[in-house]
Structure formats: structure tokens, C-alpha cells
Amino acid sequence: MAVIELSHISKYYGKFAAVKDLSLTIDKGEFYGFIGPNGAGKSTTMNMILNFIKHNGGSIKLFGQELPEHDVEVKKKIGYVPGDVRFYSQLTVQDLFRYTLEFHHLKEDQKELDNYCELFQVDRKKKFGELSLGNKKKIAVICAMIHHPQLLILDEPTNGLDPLMHARLFHLMKEKQQEGVTIFLSSHNLKEVEDYCSKVAFIKQGELVGVEDLTKSRQKVKIILLRGRSLPIDEMKAIGAKCITQTEQEARFLYEKDLQQLFSVLASFAPRLDDVTVENRDLEEQFMSMYATGEARS
Asked: Yes or no: is domain 222-280 CATH 3.30.70.1150?
């Protein structure tokens, strides 16, 4: 079952296309990453999904229901952590939790709230305006989780978190995913996307430029680094390797074909090589190869 269905949605500000003709489907229970440079359109897309801003053309469905017609109904099922957390600064943390529960017409589950506060080391007596960026993010996470949403939309949720809180947050997210919660994560931290997401969508200058199933691609694409005075550039290209960078004594290749061919070439040129490295392409390498040719709009 598709939880998020975006069909050719766009957002224009005058002639400027913040998002253009974007289509994306996220199924129930997926941990889905959404990455791109600053200004690529990630937050704009999330804001359109949440109906905070209107989309120009195309359609948005959440849980099979069209927006904006079913806006109120579907938002009851969503937890959201914004990139820039802003609550009333004079309210205490406890008041924010209480108002969040009242908004959803729920009574406080004291045990659950205690567990969240202990997990994230939250002081409920403090006023929100007194908190650091990391502590504000923790409050936003708890407020997003407290009504047991079926969909979590997280826009840069780990900004300001220390490594311990970062690890606890993602351990909790994986638990929620195992319970059937769908998670849509925007992040600049490519390592966390690679470690936790099953799929990732790449956006550049408002347009979707690729979707990768990380469960299938992790072992497929290789990065080969060759060092030496006489490198087999033409021979590597002949077996389908793509040269990414090249200097006089070093070359890096992208390769996703038959490994037997690769090792045959490397073996025949071994006496001329000083060093050889073969490793799986990680998400950072993929990101850089996809975006190095141009900058996203600001």
C-alpha cells in the first residue's frame, strides 16, 4: 500500500520552479531517504505533502486519499519534525507536550512520556526558549511521536544532536519502522541515510534525478582506485569502467559489470601498478557523482 503518492507536482514562485514535475511513491513501512544540496527543493516538497503550501499542478495522495480534500483526516496520522523548530518560547516543555496531546484529543500516557523524556534526557520544567538547538529538536521529535502516527516526516531531524542522542533517535525510528510506521527522512548526513534507509530519492534544482533501492545496489557498483606510472586507462574503459578522475599516476573508476573481467585486467597489469583499491560505492560517492556537475539553486 502506498502511503505517499506524488504525481507530477510542481511549485512555482513566479517563473522560478522550486519543485518541478516531481513524482514519487513511498510504500507502507518504508524508511525512505530524500537528499539533495541546499535549495534543491526537499523542504518545499515536504511542505506540499503536508499542505502547508499549495502545489501547482499534479496530485498528492496520502494513505490513498487526495489532498487537500482530506487534509484534516490524513494529518491525524502524521508526525512531523521541521528543519527549523519553532514553538512558543515562554511555554514549558511539559506544557508543549500537554497541548500536543490535547490537540490530538488524547490523554497523557505518563509511562510513555516518561520513557521518551528519559531516552532523550529532556527536562520538562524548562521553557522552550531556554533550550539549545539539539534539545529543541528532541522536543519536536517527542511531539511528533506522542500521538502514535502512521507516517513520520522528518526534515533534518538530527541537526544539533550529539552522537548519543543521534544513535538513540535512529534506534527508535527503526523500532517504529518494524511496527509498520512509514518514515520519510530529509537529511544532509549521507551516512545516516545509507545506514538506515531502504530507498533514497535524489533531488536537484527542484527535479527528481534518481531513486535508488539501497538494499539492491549496495554491493553492485564498485569504485576502483589505481596508482602507478603506467595505468591501464583504455583497457579499463574497454571492459565498461567509467573514469571519474585521472592524474598522471592515479585514476578512479566506476564499475558495475563482470568482476572476472575486472580482475583479469588488473592481474595482467599488476607489475605496472603500485596500488589497487576496490570497494563498494557508498552514498557519498554516488551523491558527488550526481551533483558535481552543477550547483542547486539557492
From this structure: yes
